[in-house]
Amino acid sequence: MFDCMSIEKFDQEIRERGWVVFEKILPDELTQNLREDSLKWIDVCSKYQIKNGINTSGDGTAHQCIGGNDSIDRFIDMHLFHKYIARYFDDKPYICNCCTPIGGFPGANIYVHQVHRDVRTFIPGYHLRLNMLIMCDDFTLENGATYVLSGSHKTEGRPDDDVFERQHERIVAPAGSVSLFNSALWHRGGHNATDRKRVALTIGYGRPFVKPQMDYARMLGEDYGRGLSPLTRQVLGYNARVPVSLDEWYRPVAERLYHADQG
Asked: Could you tell me where the beta strands, DSSP code E, fall in 16-64?
């Protein structure tokens, strides 16, 4: 677990700007492995997109990429930023909401390039969700480093395009850097004008009572869950499952699917 920024500084940056960056924090080997596995998952998910008529060639993204017994699973199990994520959620339990590799393909123009925020519900001052952006390549002005509008997590309405373009900042940092930002922050991906993919892995974390995009615990299964550490079981939603039968509902406290501390 990293301890490279004081909690006081983290609190201030997240409160005022809505985002922080840990520069060049991951080892080169882990960063490269995450890059390779992100691209592997993009190939897998592109086949689903094409088969189900979502698009004709894949859009360079993948979703819910957990359970492949790869570096992404291992990274989640490391909990390197748990100190900061837990602080964001008031030192209460949290779960993984989504896991999305993004290829940053040269010339691509897809949904991530639109100004957006990653949570639809806005509750002033309340931390509902947190984004983690893992930079598997250098993020530069030329290859599409993410645009963010500092402080925009404090207001409900979408900023005017001209305001966003005048006041945005860019998350420019070397490969192996990680950004954490309030999911209510308005942001967009940049267009890659180089000839090399700009790969990123994004992971969303949220309150346990907010439905994740994928029911990871049921997708992965109980056998998979039994081999996880207590914190990883928590993060993958094993403590916040919804019963689907009366037999699952009527269980002793220690065996209940939704634990009492999940909010």
From this structure: 19-22
